[in-house]
Amino acid sequence: xRYTPATGRWDWRSAPPQGAGGIHHMxxxxxxxxxxxxxxxxxxxxxxxxxxxxxxxxPGRNEWSTGSSPIPAPHRRGAAAAVAYRGAIYVACGxxxxxxxxxxxxxxxxxxFTPPAGGGADGQWAALPAAPxxxxxxxxxxxxxxxxxxxxxxxxxxxxxxxxxxxxxxYAFGSGAWRTLxxxxxxxxxxxxxxxxGGRVVIAxxxxxxxxxxxxxxxxxxxxxxxxxAARMLPGPGGSxxxxxxxxxxxxxxxxxxxxxxxxxxxxxxxxxxxxxxVQPPPKCT
Length: 286
Known about the structure:
four-stranded antiparallel beta sheet, globular
């Protein structure tokens, strides 16, 4: 679906090519004229295979394309983090197998996918230095020339919903090195909403330990400090609430979070949308 902030309206767009098991546990990354899905599951809980090929959506043409070759096995997984930086997409961590022990394994894998010059689902994969720790159901954002990896859990553990990760790892694109910040999340959370506004990273929602978390934390990357804030939300049909299994879309200093799940696990599925801003009234998305 497509949301137009100027009108506040949603409309249906072309659905991605998918089988009976659908496409889920993915992050959609905008780069150039396309939106990419590179690390996703299909099938049904708890044993879920990975989607084998890159999917690319062209909003202007309302068309999907599928990679002509499968994603190489070392780079194939679901529930990973993905960001765009200087013409390439970086995919961090993730899971092979789905949810829980013994059939799934959380990953440290870090990959770069470079689309062709004109964009599209075919491209080149490269292996990069592995992340400091395994995690899936994780999100990442770019701040300056670094990627910040926050939230997630070890989905291959015997109690995967409880195996949350509080460490925050940062990858420097220039040096190709990872580091772990001193700051840690006060609330470990899988599948959180994460977005960057300037040099600050907002981590909100997420699930774990039987809960869906309403708390919002704000990380100052340069200062290496984190604090829990009272989230100033724009009113949505469902009001401000905890949610997980969605992502944060940033426009003009506002983070929008739509849909997701309102309890730990896959239900209830939400149709509401919220937005976070450091200023009131929040800037308009144009």
